[in-house]
């Protein structure tokens, strides 16, 4: 495409600008700056045009753009139609493409972002995956939505992150990353969804700079910056003044235009680089020059125009457009100000069309034809040349000063005509919605930005036509949108507020202001719903809908009691409401009250035997309770209702694994992967199943398969590390745990397992740090005691006996019966007071192997039994327990743990022997049997273990 080829809108703007008069000083300075070498220290790369509405900011900026084009620059004009940084970059890229300078790599990445964002929205709206034994906490869900709000996935919802604890925010963000990681294709996709600005901008900057290298200047113009500044400030500042996104070409010039001064909190350190262009009303000389240029020269007429307009440029230009030649033609006391603006348009059809076209908030030719009478349908091109109509992107709109006056005129002149025209526009919006919807459900349509815009148009025009009748429906739309797509709530609220202002309807305006104010605060959506619930005369169906959505929001905020109160109220209003039973059941489930959750899901399923959601959640709840047979029955029913319910296939497979039906579990997971080829979770669960079967090599292969699909899947990386540790691949285990931690996994057991791997490798310093980190996280008393005891072992081996004793005492205070705590306490007593003092502790651990085996237990009962019997010189008993450990299927880690324990015991025996040889036999408290022969027996047992370890695993690496 020829770089100089302009769009129709740009051509119209250019034609409109040929008669530009005034602002000579500002234009002269801008031209002079264009002529400078961008490397010149005097080159000004950032301009800020500011002033009240009507002073001509947009006209001046468009004139700046024309000057830049005439100079040979690439130019881009952006206005308030963008709603975030990605949208701003997309608009810039689209406009550069129309001038023959496409940003191809950026456009490709942007398309990927939009697709992945839709997938993320669907994932967050859908059922939980059974990736872990417990569901995600509700706290993680609210923070997840807070994070999504911050990146634009839920722009209609208030800033939830400000309403929760900072630690909760961090954990929630990590959990969101993990949750998305299980659904998106790879780590890059997760980062693209969670941090689109960070990922998109470097590519954007690189290609923008390449485009700038081909021209003297690349000029970006951001108009109506008072609306977009809060969204774009930080990004633009970093783009221009830091290397955060990479180097920007020096000939990129930015002009901001808005009503307000720049936010000092953002720009204070860079104001010296900002060229301030303040605009006020025309000086009298400028106003007279403009009128003269339009051949309005009669002195009395000029004086009247100056008095009526206050020299506000938009009004001066409008009154001068048709060149009145007499004062009485302007100062007709029987006319209104707007009628004077159009008085000299002799064609009554065009005159009426200009008024009617002010009714829509934004125009394109289709909207124009619906707004005006049939006789004016062909005059859209003429309308676009009027001085108060500007083209922005693919739509047009009136200057706010003129539109406000025209709306007031029409509303007062003929309320019936006002209502009829708005009614016609509302009906057109309804038709276009139906066309846009196609075969999609209303819930699906609410995720479509185009459909939401059309729905907002209908709400706006219906409220203007008949506020009393339309307001209840508009407020119901807030609730419906909140239920299906919270991203659209703010648009609906803003639409209600503007309709109240434009239609001068106090009740509508009140609700619009109340809703938008609520959405701007913490827990914004909940506050808006609470306000709606307080409306007098609200019927039971409306109350039911609001309580249901508000209950969901409160559940996500972990305010269990309030959430339950909402669902209880739903059931008071409608005892057979299945959604309310499910909503209350989910609340019980997330607070881990599984019995009550199961009761509610059962009731929902009784009321609606065909409810897939009720069946699935009942199955999940039974699974989480360990009732795997019951869970299978209900999940089978779920799959009868929906054979392609992928999560049900996955949850069912987990139940089968727990029941030892491994082959059936593998088959079910493979079916899930067939239905969703990028289903990394199911691949990882196959790894868990192979792990349960003791087939560690195949388990590692499945985790590799999952991570190949999604490298950002932190849970899978941690699970792989666990299998690598079990099978003796210690270096791999540490690498896997490192990757999981880098991906944001905050599971304390991950750090404890990494510590164990490092411990077995002899990396005691790293192990000590990780045990400490695990103990510092938010965990129940039992696990914290385990981590403290393990840390005590590291301290003991380092000779820091006082610190080790403090750690053991803290662990004992938390969980005195925990096997790991008692085991370390015995070893520490040996180290501090000698073997004889530890005999009671060892005696208590003699029969530890009677406890059920568990691959996930941190201290294996059989290991504790072997070491304690050796400490008691019960060699026959030790050999008997060891024989069980040496059986086929015992993981390498358990064998290594036993060898490590015997090695420690031998070391303590040696220390005691040294003290004995120094004449300290009494203090050493040596027990007969721990003599040279006992040392030989320990060494023999260790050799047997080392031989077996060599057979079943690769050993330390």
At the third CATH level, what is the topology name of one domain?
Answer: Rossmann fold
The assembly state of the depicted protein chains is single chain
- Largest sheet composition: 5 strands, parallel
- Number of beta strands: 7
Uncertain runs with pLDDT below 50, 5 residues or more? 11-19, 125-172, 331-336, 917-929
The total count of helices amounts to 49
Structural class: mainly alpha
Query: What's the level 1 CATH class of one domain?
Result: Alpha Beta
Radius of gyration: 37 Å
Roughly what percent helix?
Answer: 55-70%
Determine the mean pLDDT: 84
Give the amount of beta strand, in percent.
under 5%
> Architecture of one domain in CATH?
3-Layer(aba) Sandwich
Strand order of the largest sheet: 2-3-4-1-5
Q: What is the end-to-end distance?
A: 60 Å
Relevant CATH superfamily of one domain: P-loop containing nucleotide triphosphate hydrolases
Shape summary: elongated
Short note summarizing the structure:
The protein is mostly helical. Among the domains are: 25-101 and 208-278, P-loop containing nucleotide triphosphate hydrolases (Rossmann fold, 3-Layer(aba) Sandwich), CATH 3.40.50.300; 835-957, no CATH class.
Describe the secondary-structure layout.
Blueprint: H1 8-17, H2 24-35, E1 46-50, H3 57-70, E2 74-78, H4 85-98, H5 104-125, H6 138-151, H7 166-181, H8 187-194, H9 196-213, E3 218-222, H10 225-241, E4 252-258, H11 264-267, E5 274-278, H12 284-293, H13 299-309, H14 313-320, H15 337-342, H16 348-356, H17 365-371, H18 380-383, E6 389-392, E7 395-398, H19 400-413, H20 415-437, H21 442-445, H22 449-465, H23 467-484, H24 489-502, H25 506-519, H26 524-533, H27 540-556, H28 560-573, H29 578-590, H30 594-607, H31 612-624, H32 628-641, H33 646-658, H34 662-675, H35 680-692, H36 696-709, H37 714-726, H38 730-742, H39 748-761, H40 764-776, H41 781-797, H42 801-814, H43 819-833, H44 835-845, H45 861-871, H46 875-885, H47 892-917, H48 921-924, H49 932-952
Parallel strand pairs: 1-4, 1-5, 2-3, 3-4
Antiparallel strand pairs: 6-7
Helix pairs in contact: 2-3, 4-9, 5-8, 5-9, 6-7, 8-9, 19-20, 20-22, 22-23, 22-24, 23-24, 23-27, 24-25, 25-26, 26-27, 27-28, 27-29, 28-29, 29-30, 29-31, 30-31, 31-32, 31-33, 32-33, 33-34, 33-35, 34-35, 35-36, 35-37, 36-37, 37-38, 37-39, 38-39, 39-40, 40-41, 41-42, 41-43, 42-43, 43-44, 44-45, ...
